[in-house]
Amino acid sequence: MKKIIFPFFAVLLITGCTPPKEEIDVAKEEEAIKAMLKKEVALWWERDVDAESNFWVKEDYFTTVSNSGNFHSQGHGWDSIFASIKRISVDTNWQYVSNARNEFKDFNIKVYDKVAWAVYYVDEAWEYKGEPYDRSFVRVTFLEKVDDNWKMALNAMTILNPCEEEDEDEENNDD
Question: Among 3.10.450.50, 3.30.750.24, 2.40.50.140, 3.40.50.2300, what is the CATH number of 22-162?
Fold first, then answer.
């Protein structure tokens, strides 16, 4: 009987002392992710690259992809991306940019234990030398939880150009 009871209590003790896996508060994590993504974009417009970089994993697998229709860029690795963004923040005529505004919408976020992904849209507007500009884009972002904070591991951005209205007669003219 002792041979049966001892293993039973050993298994009970081992399984009973293992803390249950903590449930993820998905709503709380989604709000934290949204806040982080919005702050990262705000820091881009403020040209505070050092503060913005606190939202990125500082690893070789960190990746960015940007497609603005007539221009495509991609970066791999923390060192390369950080150097490139630092250069852009200095080389571009940012002193002529004013009144930048962003509207985030249609977030679709999936949260796991230590990783998450987000697909969302951003409408931006700004002035350059007093002339108004705007654009809309979709962002796809993969995130990792590092030291209890969400950080970007991959950020892909594609500009959405509104479809121009075409004259149906011209479009369907087979003559």
Answer: 3.10.450.50
Tokens of 159: 């500009």
* pLDDT tens, residue order, the chain (175 aa): 455 554 544 444 454 544 555 688 999 999 999 999 999 999 888 888 889 889 999 999 999 988 877 778 888 888 888 888 888 777 778 888 899 999 999 999 999 999 999 999 999 999 999 999 998 999 999 999 999 999 999 999 998 875 544 444 445 555 5
